[in-house]
Write a structure and sequence with these properties.
Layout (H helix, E strand, L loop, with lengths): L9 E8 L2 H5 L1 H5 L6 E6 L4 E7 L5 E7 L5 H6 L9 E8 L6 H9 L6 E2 L3 E6 L5 E7 L1 E2 L13 E5 L3 H4 L15 E11 L7 H9 L17 E6 L3 E8 L3 E6 L2 E6 L3
Parallel strand pairs: 1-4, 5-10, 11-12, 13-15
Antiparallel strand pairs: 1-5, 2-3, 2-7, 3-4, 6-9, 7-8, 8-10, 11-13, 14-15
InterPro entries: Glyas_Bleomycin-R_OHBP_Dase, Glyoxalase-like_dom
Organism: Penicillium atrosanguineum
Pfam family, one: Glyoxalase_3
């Protein structure tokens, strides 16, 4: 494998910001649609989460800031100024942290002024006391300033086994959802600032070829496609499952379920 080669990015998770009150009551909202998995508190002490595990290994992260967090610390957080009740970000992963070097190598020659930070350590402790560690790489512009969350994915690279962080196989009952959802069929991004640093060039560097992603389970079902367009900023998700239709992920946030046929 050459230094320019790269494994297809693996879709890791989708980040949905909610208020702490809504996070505490999320189970009552999704009852009858989705099965909730426990999350935990993040190592920085600012945020806590709960998860929805999908059988393809991708997960949805409902994340909230604690109400008593210092306002200045929240503002300085990557997601501190984002709108609650919306999909705000998403993450890719790779089999090994060392695989990320190929991404950074491609960005050196990419037709874009965006790039990624070097891996930054992170982690959280699960309710059962299990410590999880990972490294995060976030997008930045030519001046080193953070790129708006959601316009480009960040990378979550595990330093402890991913199976500890996302127990979708060991606890497969948590991936069984009343509405039949099994995985994510596609992700599409609308971004109003596409011209700021040539997002198309950035995504060419991210994917290194066709704009498609793998999923942690290794399943090849579905198109697993990514698309980019300009317009009012938004992240759109389309799920696949044993049933088709629409459901309300959060009040006012409606998503589609399609079949794989």
């Amino acid at each position: 494998m050459s230094s320019q080669a790269m494994q297809i990015p693996i879709l890791d998770h989708i980040v949905i910001l909610v208020s702490h009150k809504d996070l505490l009551g999320i189970s009552s909202h999704i009852e009858g649609h989705l099965t909730l998995a426990p999350g935990g508190n993040h190592a920085d002490g600012l945020t806590t989460n709960k998860l929805i595990l999908l059988s393809d290994g991708v997960y949805l992260e409902f994340i909230a800031f604690f109400d008593d967090v210092d306002p200045e610390r929240r503002r300085n957080h990557r997601w501190g100024k984002e709108t609650e009740g919306t999909v705000i970000d998403w993450a890719f992963t790779l089999p090994s942290e060392s695989d990320f070097a190929a991404v950074q190598q491609r960005f050196q020659n990419a037709d874009t002024s965006a790039s990624y930070t070097d891996p930054i350590p992170g982690g959280r402790t699960k309710p059962d006391g299990t410590v999880l560690e990972w490294a995060v790489c976030t997008p930045k512009d030519r001046q080193g300033n953070a790129v708006a969350p959601g316009s480009m994915p960040f990378w979550c690279l595990d330093r402890t086994p991913r199976a500890r962080r996302v127990s979708y196989e060991a606890e497969s009952h948590l991936t069984q959802h009343p509405n039949g959802v099994k995985g994510l069929l596609s992700v599409s991004i609308r971004d109003p600032d596409e011209g700021a640093f040539n997002l198309k060039g950035a995504y060419d560097a991210i994917f290194g070829g066709e704009w498609s992603y793998d999923v942690p389970s290794g399943s090849t079902a579905g198109k697993r496609a990514f698309s980019l367009s300009t317009g009012e900023a938004a992240i759109k998700l389309v799920f696949h499952g044993s049933k088709t239709g629409r459901f309300e992920l959060l009040p006012g946030l409606v998503v589609d379920i399609e079949s794989l046929a």
